[in-house]
Amino acid sequence: MFVKRYDEVEKEEVNEEGAKNVEIQWLIDEKVAPNFAMRRFTIKENGYTPLHKHDWEHEVFVLQGEGALVDGDGNEHPLKPGNFALVEPNEVHQFKNKGKEDFVFLCLIPLK
Amino acid sequence: MFVKRYDEVEKEEVNEEGAKNVEIQWLIDEKVAPNFAMRRFTIKENGYTPLHKHDWEHEVFVLQGEGALVDGDGNEHPLKPGNFALVEPNEVHQFKNKGKEDFVFLCLIPLK
Predict the structure, then answer these.
(1) pTM of the prediction?
(2) In sequence order, what are the beta bridge partners of A2?
């Protein structure tokens, strides 16, 4: 077992096309996780992740700030601390910061 | 996809032998999760989970309060908000509240 703090893990800029002002920290990554990975995302002011889809799910828990989860019809589902979300495989989705402060959430994905 | 708040999910008392003052909320459970489940635990003052082991991992993120993760040698690894932990399959472990307020954390497990 191990115990760490999120700020011990390096923030990497997300350079994927369609992403703006997004950083990722791989808290529990494929080097150590048996089945699924825990990532911490920070979306800064005016930032967003790509509007895209893929064949794996996201399990999300919001830690800080105000954001939205955009669906394939362009509807924005508000996200605040205490909200959690499931994005199913092959669903179009995007995460956006809707406030002034950093929008921070955990996003877990399967490895297999 | 769906978005919910943790307080929309019923708290269930953990009645497992060796548990005291522990509640669980199944935020994303096996009815909807493709691969892994998200649970939110609340351990009240003087509470703890069973000291036990099993053949699946825990991925943990602390949300509130002060606690400890006890290992098989009886060592207590402190846990506060911002800490995360991996308990590997077959490792002996226990979660304890070490403070006055509720100790709250997410604990994710594989379904398969």
Answers:
(1) 0.98
(2) B86
